[in-house]
Specification:
It contains 13 helices and no strands. By secondary structure, the chain is mainly α. The longest helix has about 35 residues, at about 55-85.
Length: about 270
């Protein structure tokens, strides 16, 4: 953290001296200009000394106001310079790197877990934002917008990497996928993505398994293999099912999946 002590030892030291010198300059100048006027007034009557003419008072007041305005402007300039220096301080300029961040392992486990529930990143979701802020707080970077964007970029890259790995896994297991029970298949394909304290057979992952096998059957990928447009087509199919508002849609999809599995085993 860029402390006040560190600031005063560095570039702030000269700014503080500058501020002090400005105040001393005006105080000295004001005192020098006041002495002759006081002496001239002292030569007159006591009433004149105690109660100078209104014109003298007005002139002195106007001059003091002008000096205060000038001083206020200098202080405002000083504050801007201090703010600029703080913006360039080591704490603010510190670059975020996920590979050296203490939150890297935790965040990658979170991404793998979310991927197994929905293989496309939802950057705008509250769950994702909260996790990013929690992880950045571990490295004292919670309020750093560049760090947040770095986490988003890493997440997008990680999801692309996970999708490529998952597609290869599906290709390797495509002969056994039609024959496995729903729970068995869900565990086999998603267990390695689940966190240690999570249940692999969660509702989200069971639904993802139903959608995956239903999609593979519909597109005849068990026989023909996957195409280059696999993920685009799968996402379109996934979102179509999500928008389906019919009641008990998951129960019907699970029943269809069960019948197909029984036929595949025969």
């Amino acid at each position: 953290m860029y402390s006040c002590h560190t600031f005063l030892q560095g570039p702030g030291k000269c700014l503080v001296f500058r501020f002090i010198s400005i105040i001393l300059y005006y105080l000295k100048k004001d005192s020098q200009e006041t002495i002759p006027e006081t002496e001239s007034l002292a030569g007159g009557s006591q009433d004149l000394f105690l109660n100078p003419p209104a014109s003298v008072r007005n002139d002195r007041t106007d001059e003091i106001i002008r000096k205060l305005d000038k001083l206020t402007g200098d202080v405002a300039l000083l504050r801007r310079e201090v703010a600029e220096l703080r913006g360039k301080s080591p704490a603010s300029a510190k670059a975020f790197n996920i590979n050296t961040a203490s939150c890297k392992r935790r965040f990658n486990l979170y991404l793998r877990s979310r991927f197994s529930c929905r293989p496309w990143l939802e950057v705008k979701s509250d769950d994702f934002k909260n996790e990013v802020h929690t992880c950045l707080a571990m490295d004292d970077m919670r309020t750093n917008p560049a760090a947040f964007q770095g986490m988003v970029s890493h997440s997008l890259h990680k999801f692309t990497e996970l999708r490529n790995q998952f597609r290869r896994k599906i290709l390797a297991d495509k002969q056994s996928i039609p024959c496995k029970g729903l729970g068995e298949l869900c565990y086999d394909i998603f267990h390695s993505y689940s966190k240690a304290d999570e249940c692999t057979l969660s509702q989200e992952r069971m639904h993802a398994t139903i959608l995956l096998r239903h999609f593979l059957h519909k597109k005849r990928y068990f026989n023909d293999g996957t195409s280059a447009s696999f993920w685009a087509e799968f996402r379109s199919f996934w979102e179509e099912i999500e928008k389906d508002g019919r009641p008990q849609k998951w129960e019907r999809l699970e029943e269809i999946d069960k019948r197909r599995t029984e036929r595949a085993r025969d």
